Each structure stands twice: as structure tokens, then as C-alpha cells.
């Protein structure tokens, strides 16, 4: 645009038209400078910076040439000005346009890559958020919110799968049914905060009393179940129940209240006591109630210190 304005200035003899073209020439120079400053503010890598620097040097050569031409026009040396436009200004302008096109093409590619990279990051972030949401939903659907243990649904599913494996490989397994003794008294006397703390502590102790491969679940208010896979025999199951009882019997302090934890534990062994998940759960539940009803006050001391 500036070279075109110079050529028209050199061809016209009208002073007013030449002044208007000079204003157009100055405005075009301002636009070029502003454009280059904005490009520079974007930031480049080493190769792009080298190209941008070469472009700046070319612009400086063009500006020096154009300034010299305007001086010639101002001095009335129109013929020399026209010759300089044809021999220097126009070739430099063509070189500038070519290098500018290359620079812009590079920038377009750079912007495209940045947009693609940003889109890729946005998609990955969205997928990660979706996966976190799915995981949270799975956790909520399969685990007890208070204790973090498996809930009834997850326990039943694992029990069914364990029964199928035991049938296929002639294996054995056991189900324990754990019911806290006099838990209602804790809630009634000390409130639900203490009751929740007791349930969380029971969950922790149950997990600490069995193997990592076993499943511990909270299936009701104060009811827990344990799936013992590869249980050798009833003697091994009785040993597991004894270990759980000892773990629960350890002293505990809840909000300054020394509460003793005890539970009635029933069990069912596959295949002797049942060959389906439902049958084993019923048998373990019935065994737990027999244990609870057999308990006497000396065997079941108070949860609260006198």
C-alpha cells in the first residue's frame, strides 16, 4: 500500500492529491508497524523468531528507501523518485509480501497446532472428569458412605461369584454375619455422632482382622458380613471369628467415652450349610441369632462403664 501511494505521488502533479497520498502513505506505515508489534507480542520459538527478525530488517530497508523517495519528491526530483520506485521500492515490496505470506502461513500453522493441542487437552480433561464422575457413581452405588465398606449389593455380587468359583473348582468358602450387641443403646444414650464413630471403628477393626482377599461389607445399620474365600473347614472359620472377636474387644475411646465393642457372630460354610448365595446368607443370619440368644450377661458385659 505504501509503495503504491509513493508511485501515485510520483506520477501526479496535483499538490492536493499528493498531500492526500502522503497521508495515506503515513497511515499505511502506522498499520504495518502496529501489525508487527502485535505479532512480536505473541511470542515465537527460535525458528519463528529468526524469520520475524528477518522480516523486521526487510521492513527497515523498505522504510529507508521510501523515506528517501519522499525526500526526492519533496525536492521536486520526481524523475529520480520514479526510477527509485521502479528499481528499488517495488522489488522490496514484492519481497516483503512474499516473506509476509510465509510468516503468516507459519503463524496460521502455529495457531492451528495450538488450537488442536488445546482441544486435545480440553478433551482429555473432560474425559478425566467423566471418569472421576463414573468412579464416584460406582463408589456410591457399591460402597457404604459412612464406613467405605462394600454395601449389600456389592457383597451379594461377590458372594455369587465366589459360589460359582467354588462349584466349578470344588472349593470352599464361608460367610460370617456380624451384629453389634446393644448398638441401639449407644445411639439412644450418646447420639448418632458417637454411633457413627463406633460403626466406622468397627469397620476398621473388621478389615484388620481378615485377609485382603476377603470381603467385608456393611449391609444394615449395625450389621456386617464377611466373605471368607478358600475357607478350609469349620475349624478355620471358628478361628477367623475368634480373631474378629478379639479385634473388636480391644479398648476404644469415642469422644471421651470408653465404650466396649462386642458383637454376635454367626457363620455358614459352603457347601455344608448352603449351596447358593441366598442360602448361605440365611444360614449365617440364623447362626448369628442363635449366638446372640445364647449369650448371657456375664458373656456380654455392658457397653458402658459403671
Question: What's the overall geometry?
Answer: rod-shaped
For the biggest β-sheet, the strand order reads 2-3-1-6
Termini Cα gap: 100 Å
Q: What is the CATH class name of the largest domain?
A: Alpha Beta
Major sheet details: 4 strands, antiparallel
Low-confidence stretches: 296-306
Describe this structure in words.
There is one protein chain. 69% of the residues lie in helices and 10% in strands. The chain has 306 residues and is an alpha+beta fold. It folds into 2 domains: 2-119; 152-294, 2-Layer Sandwich (Alpha-Beta Plaits). It is built from 9 helices and 6 strands; from the N terminus they run H-H-H-H-H-E-H-H-E-E-H-E-E-E-H. Strand 2 and strand 3 (223-229) form a beta hairpin.
Give a short summary of the structure:
This protein has helices spanning 2-11, 15-42, 46-74, 78-142, 152-169, 183-190, 192-209, 234-249, 277-294; strands spanning 173-180, 215-218, 223-229, 253-254, 257-258, 263-270. The chain is of the alpha+beta class and 306 residues long.
Amino acid at each position: 500500500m505504501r509503495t503504491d501511494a509513493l508511485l501515485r505521488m510520483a506520477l501526479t502533479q496535483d499538490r492536493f492529491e499528493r498531500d492526500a497520498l502522503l497521508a495515506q502513505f503515513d497511515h499505511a506505515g502506522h498499520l504495518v508497524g502496529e501489525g508487527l508489534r502485535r505479532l512480536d507480542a505473541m511470542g515465537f520459538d527460535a525458528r519463528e523468531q529468526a524469520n520475524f527478525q528477518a522480516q523486521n530488517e526487510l521492513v527497515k530497508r523498505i522504510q529507508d528507501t521510501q523515506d528517501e523517495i519522499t525526500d526526492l519528491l519533496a525536492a521536486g526530483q520526481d524523475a529520480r523518485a520514479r526510477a527509485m520506485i521502479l528499481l528499488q521500492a517495488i522489488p522490496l515490496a514484492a519481497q516483503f509480501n512474499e516473506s509476509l505470506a510465509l510468516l503468516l502461513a507459519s503463524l496460521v500453522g502455529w495457531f492451528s497446532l495450538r488450537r488442536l493441542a488445546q482441544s486435545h487437552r480440553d478433551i482429555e480433561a473432560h474425559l478425566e472428569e467423566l471418569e472421576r464422575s463414573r468412579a464416584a457413581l460406582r463408589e456410591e452405588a457399591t460402597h457404604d458412605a459412612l464406613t467405605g465398606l462394600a454395601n449389600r449389593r456389592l457383597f451379594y455380587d461377590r458372594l455369587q461369584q465366589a459360589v460359582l468359583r467354588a462349584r466349578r473348582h470344588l472349593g470352599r468358602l464361608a460367610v460370617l454375619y456380624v451384629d453389634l450387641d446393644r448398638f441401639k443403646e449407644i445411639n439412644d444414650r450418646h447420639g448418632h455422632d458417637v454411633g457413627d464413630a463406633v460403626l466406622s471403628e468397627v469397620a476398621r477393626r473388621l478389615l484388620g482382622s481378615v485377609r485382603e482377599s476377603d470381603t467385608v461389607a456393611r449391609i444394615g445399620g449395625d450389621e456386617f458380613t464377611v466373605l471368607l474365600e478358600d475357607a478350609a473347614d469349620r475349624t478355620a472359620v471358628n478361628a477367623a471369628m475368634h480373631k474378629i472377636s478379639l479385634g473388636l474387644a480391644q479398648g476404644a475411646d469415642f469422644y471421651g467415652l470408653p465404650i466396649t465393642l462386642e458383637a454376635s457372630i454367626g457363620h455358614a460354610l459352603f457347601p455344608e450349610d448352603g449351596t447358593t448365595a441366598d442360602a448361605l446368607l440365611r444360614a449365617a443370619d440364623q447362626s448369628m441369632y442363635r449366638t446372640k440368644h445364647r449369650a448371657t450377661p456375664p458373656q456380654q458385659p455392658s457397653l458402658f462403664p459403671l
